[in-house]
Amino acid sequence: MRFERCRHLFGEEGFAKIAQSKILILGVGGVGSYALDCLYRSGVQDITIVDYDTYDESNRNRQIGSDAVGKSKVATLASHYPTITPIEQQMDMAWVEAFDFEPYDIIIDAADTTRVKLEVAKRCYKKLIMSVGSAKRYDTNKIEVASIWKTHGDALARKIRNELKKAKFDRNFTVVFSPEEDRCQGKGSFVGVTGAFGLTICSEAIKRITHTK
Question: Which residue range forms the structural domain that includes residue 158?
């Protein structure tokens, strides 16, 4: 039975909550694709993914589905995870302002654009789990989960905190981050960390769905 071991772990009531949950993932690259895979394998069927990119050769070191070089990310992943809903859409400010986030139980922000992340946080903070700072690192032991206001050692998290303060936004939301110092210049990345970010996000989502700590 496909989800037998999940049912043993979470119990019938807990697994029913997982199976009935509705999740939105913004960005399905090195972090988002692993969050998707983890959630799907854990019994979440109603997952909507949003991304506009196609796979590039340089994605193959860290992204699920990236052997399909030149193909749409969301279309490729939809072929692997048949119950999900793919939205091939560039996430800009206009899209965030117009999109209806209300139907979703959890919103996972694995997007790259700071302005988009800020706007999503303002609109969806109660439901949000945000990823920041997974690139240029290779030590999974450094990964942490905290309120955005308790993040430390990561430049993107610091920028988001500062911009939210300027906007006089003081609400809490959950962030997965790493204070590990950058190990390189440029666009270095390691699937051990980017994937672990995605799996950590999945774990946080499952705990929230089942109301466990």
Answer: 4-210
Give this prediction's pTM: 0.97
Phi, psi at residue 54, to the nearest 5°? -105, 160
29-52 confidence digits (pLDDT tens): 999 999 999 999 999 999 999 999
- Say how many domains are in the chain: 1
CATH number of the domain that residue 38 is part of: 3.40.50.720
List, as one string, the DSSP characters of the chain. -TTHHHHHHHHHHHHHHHHH-EEEEE--STTHHHHHHHHHHTT--EEEEEE--B--GGGGGT-TTTTSTTSBHHHHHHHHSTT-EEEE----HHHHHHS--TT-SEEEE--S-HHHHHHHHHHHGGGEEEE---TT---GGG-EEEEGGG--S-HHHHHHHHHHHHTT-----EEEE--PPP-SSSS---HHHHHHHHHHHHHHHHHHHHT--
Mean pLDDT of 74-86: 98
Closest CA to 121 of 200, 159, 174: 174
